[in-house]
């Protein structure tokens, strides 16, 4: 019977044995849409760990390692995120402590305003640790990436592609205040243990405007229940969204969601992207 570690490279397996010599893999938590492997391990003393291993195409492990080294202390020092044990960016391998709890996504806690209040407060703590002003690089990248997604293979309606391309080509590229962001801030990356919210998965962490971490929530949970948004913003302490920059992000997220999900074969997520596109087109009267 194949072992859970058989999908790792020889170098990744050797590193894992040297870092955790008596730990055995007990469960595969990989999403399956990309090549990253996420393995839960248990040591003989009962300690639990997570090993994340990237394949040749992976570009998330390095980001996650960087996040652990630069930005996670406000959370790890409070026990709200897993602490790093060992990492090798060249080998695309990261090991952290296991953060106890159950995923908020698809759990009864996903509709609990108190969870969102905690998530807002956690995000404010993360965003507030540092900031830097750019010279338009973020907005320039967002513009280029959106045009690239529109030109890629996807199932976005041709009329919508034409209208959105014309819109994005007119986008300005103003300066932005960048802060450490999670990059995929939503209930599938929150865990709750004894009523306390923790955070996992930092493969998209980067310096961005604060409002970018609200994109997934607005497209999903907040759309269904506005009380969750109110609780989140109360916990966060303010609303970081500036209308024009926020609309540009919504367009970018909508197009990127539909095109990326088509690329990896995630039909449900692709449908969400098409719904997001329809929403922004209706709001822009296009």
Automatic annotation (TrEMBL):
The name this protein goes by in its record: Phosphotransferase enzyme family protein
Domain Aminoglycoside phosphotransferase residues, every copy: 43-246
Annotated keywords: Transferase
Keyword Transferase: yes
Domain of life: Bacteria
UniProt key word Transmembrane helix: no
GO MF term list: transferase activity
Source organism: Nocardioides terrae
